[in-house]
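A quick word before the example. In earlier lectures we treated sequence and structure as two separate objects. From today on, think of them as two lines of the same record. Here is GntR family transcriptional regulator written that way.
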Amino acid sequence: MDLDRSVPVWPQVAADLRRRLDAGEWAPGERFPGTVTLTAEYRVTQSTVQKAVVQLRKEGRLRTVLGAGSYVMD
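And the structure line, produced from the sequence above:
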């Protein structure tokens, strides 16, 4: 994915992750990739990925379990 770095990056990452969730890349209940994995994949900072994940959590697409990671919601 080509990111437009002239504007905030985290909404672009969130949009791509949303698209991938909608496409069924991860099944409901499945563990969502961790921030380290997504940081390497998108070539962004961990804080950028964390902001994107927080947004997806606010939308009800993910749930996060402390110490266990994030999971795809039904």
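Notice the following. Residues 10-72 form a domain with the Arc Repressor Mutant, subunit A fold (CATH 1.10.10.10). We will return to this example when we discuss secondary structure assignment.
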